[in-house]
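Lecture 7 notes. Example A: sequence first, then its structure tokens.
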Amino acid sequence: MRRSSVVFSLCFLVLLSSCTESLPLRDDPVLPLTGTVGSELTSLFQKDGPMVYSEITIFPKVKNIYDETLQGYGDFKGEIKVVWERDTSFSKTFILDRNSLTENRRYKYDASLNVLTLDQGDEISFFFRWNFVDDNGRKIDSAFTLKLDGSCWKIVRVPRGKNLAAIFWNPRKFTVERFIVSGYIKPFKDLAAVIIEPLVLTVDYETYKKDQCQSMPNPR
């Protein structure tokens, strides 16, 4: 890892050998990088409302919180694990590499030299999409306990000859689930991996678009 603080340290040693006057110490952070996680839930709906499938996109990130530029050989490795809080036997592990990087770059990278440069505030963002299938091929969302939104429940009685027929319109079904996201990211070859502290990821999972109950069909 090459950075200006390293150059400063070498100059500092030379000064110590030539004079006895003390210099102020630098307050450098122990960890110049910090790791965070973002997410986005995407659902695909049929024309009449029911959900066809849902997936979540997770964005692990590392950011240079140091007040100087960091530079070194790139590594771009990492591992992220997602565990369902209610049943920890359901988990999914994702391996990060260069193919996991997002296109929106906030860093400099020379691929020919494999040199990565992060200015202060720059970040590297990875991404992966997850369809709630765990490492054993099980669909986690099939185990969700869905609740009913009574405000979407409709019962209408319409004439059918001499009798009355009841039309039932299914309510919105939903659940709020929590997942624990943890892991590490190693952007530089010569710098220790950045540990991502366990993050609680809350997912609002529903069978209809949020706050939208489907209107009743016209009786025929």
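Example B, a different protein, same format:
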Amino acid sequence: MKDRIKVIISNEQTVEKLPRGLRMLIRRCCNAVLVNEQFKGSAEISVAIVDDERIHELNKQYRNVDRSTDVLSFPLGAEGVYDVNNDTGAQMLGDIVISIEHAHKQAELYGHSFDREIAFLTVHSMLHLLGYDHEAGGLELVRMREKEEAVLTQLGLERSGSYYTVEE
């Protein structure tokens, strides 16, 4: 049986209509990361599109951070071992939650397209689901950024400028 990638996308916000092609873009990003990382076997990923209010609630509940954010990742595995869907045999990588409002603000802030921002957030989160972590900075941060940019360039969404800002 051929390996399959299932990306379940749910729109859990009413702030705005999802742009045409957004679901396909998210699926392409998930697939590209798995190909680049040479992931073996079938996989399932859940992606929820939410508003700032909902992501704020989740950020507070799960990370004890009392503000909205752009994206949250909820891995279902560790060190390459994942829960398996007994019906399909697919490895369940985890959940990605993207704030559509935050994505719009950041696209404007960083001077790139909304598609590029959604793609970046999806790729970034996928790497988290696969065990990458940039929180400590240093080499892990650099490694993760390089992987993100490699996938985005491959998808034709390379960076046109800096998208880093300093947060207090």
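Note on Example B: The helical segments are 22-36, 52-63, 100-110, 114-129, 138-154. DSSP finds five helices and six strands in the chain.
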